Amino acid sequence: MAKIAGLAVGMSLALGAVATPAGAQTIADLQAQINALLAQLAALQGGSTTTTTACSFTRSLTMGASGADVTCLQQYLQGTGHFTFSGGATGYFGSITKSAVAAWQAANGVSPAVGYFGPVSQARYSAIAGTTGGTTTGGTTTGGITTPGVEGTITVTKNPSPASGVKLYEGDSMKTVLGIKLEAKTSDIKVERIRLDLDETGDTASQDSAFYNKAVQKIYIMDGSTVLASSDLNSSTVVEESNEISITLAGMSFIVPKNTIKVLTVAMDAKSSWDSTYNADSWTVGLATDGVRGVDGAGVNQYGPSAAGVFTNSFTTEDDILDSATLAISLNSSTPNTQQVICELGTDNDECDNLEVAKFDFKAEKDNITVTDFVLDIVRAGDTVATATTAYIYDGSTLVGSASVAGTTLALMTATFSDIDWVVPSNTTRTLSVRFDIDDAALAADTFVASTDADDTTAENSVGNTVTATG
């Protein structure tokens, strides 16, 4: 009920302004206060959001004006929730439009807010329209602010992914090292710049300038795979104060919609090479106090994090990833258990064809690994009547290679698989199944043990350099 009474008083004072010119300044002040109440009422009542075309104004608009520019203004004010006439845009600037303009002026800091849409209001409109249209960043168009005139806040925290401890290898491109979580409240927030602190925290360098002199070539702010901003790192782009360095990445127009969370990431290009003394050295990248600056719907700058909320992630520098590639060999957990087998499954009643005797896991890290040659050691014990004639290795149901079993003695034999070129993709584990053809089984107990070790495997990385297996 109080808000309805406020509207009635507003109309009375507006009429009084026409009848009493001598009190125009006082009345204008009161009118501004009333229009501020109108703006609050409009915000409480809400309004539908519509997409409008940017208006072009070549004259001031006031009571009695009409035309396409008035229609465009009314449509814009419909979108902001200030023009609520049930008949929609009419193209005529009457008392309803004047009240709507006054409410918009009060909400957007235009004084006096008396409903006259002149140069000051039009300049303010142009500034806001620049934030309500779509913006293009990194080749991708992002939506504009949909909450014009509304103040908001932004909360900036560390995203759990990626975690600290990322390894940056020589020549790495766009390696993600830090996640920034952004939460907008009350209004959309347009993030325009991010300032990062860069530190060398290991024992190798004595100055943080080693960050860009020795380790990192370029830095990015990313929205998924989209580059929002980037900068080379050198003495011209960083700011150095008291041996502390920072970099500011500006020119962004990234929208965080009201009451939603978005995550941006910091990525880096490593130097193509560095001194071996920097291998395993540690570094940090973090968000400075007020490192994120955004603009809300009212055009007010919003910052985060506070001094108490600053955060960092660490990473280490390592050799060229190819030179760090590894291959580990181990016994698969589902390898067949020791058991008695009756050999009558082959072409004759004294044979076992393709008898599985072992499974081995091959784990590649940091690069694709090609196993070129593989040697299987076979030990025969017992009555030494049956013989293993041929050995096979399978990847699932796919035959990788076969080899004749050659014996140095009755008890010690080997099977050499040459030029198999079996690839284990980077950071994966693949399994080889070992199978034998057993001949000449008799009413006697013979045992066969298949084994291998790191020295029995020849492997190389994706550029042909030798990789020494372990296991």
Report what the structure shows.
The structure is a single chain. By secondary structure, the chain is of the alpha+beta class. It has 3 domains: 2-132, Orthogonal Bundle (Muramoyl-pentapeptide Carboxypeptidase, domain 1), CATH 1.10.101.10; 140-319, Immunoglobulin-like, CATH 2.60.40; 326-470, Sandwich (Immunoglobulin-like), CATH 2.60.40. The protein contains 6 helices and 27 strands. It has helices at 2-19, 24-45, 68-80, 95-107, 119-132, 210-215; strands spanning 135-137, 140-142, 153-158, 166-169, 175-185, 189-200, 216-223, 226-232, 239-241, 244-249, 254-256, 261-270, 281-295, 301-304, 311-318, 326-331, 352-365, 369-382, 387-395, 398-407, 412-417, 422-424, 428-439, 446-451, 457-460, 466-467, 469-470. Strands 16, 17, 18, 19, 20, 21, 22, 23, 24, 25, 26 and 27 form a 12-stranded mixed beta sheet that branches. Strands 4, 6, 9, 10, 11, 13, 14 and 15 form an 8-stranded mixed beta sheet that branches. The radius of gyration is 37 Å and the shape is elongated.
Indicate the overall shape.
elongated
Tell me the helix content: 10-25%
- Number of structural domains: 3
What's the tally of helices?
6
Characterize this entry briefly:
The chain contains 6 helices and 27 strands. With 471 residues, the chain is of the alpha+beta class. It is elongated.
Blueprint of the fold:
Blueprint: H1 2-19, H2 24-45, H3 68-80, H4 95-107, H5 119-132, E1 135-137, E2 140-142, E3 153-158, E4 166-169, E5 175-185, E6 189-200, H6 210-215, E7 216-223, E8 226-232, E9 239-241, E10 244-249, E11 254-256, E12 261-270, E13 281-295, E14 301-304, E15 311-318, E16 326-331, E17 352-365, E18 369-382, E19 387-395, E20 398-407, E21 412-417, E22 422-424, E23 428-439, E24 446-451, E25 457-460, E26 466-467, E27 469-470
Parallel strand pairs: 4-15, 16-27
Antiparallel strand pairs: 1-2, 3-5, 5-12, 6-10, 6-11, 6-13, 7-8, 7-12, 9-10, 13-14, 13-15, 16-17, 17-23, 18-21, 18-22, 18-24, 18-25, 19-20, 19-23, 20-21, 25-26
Helix pairs in contact: 1-2, 2-4
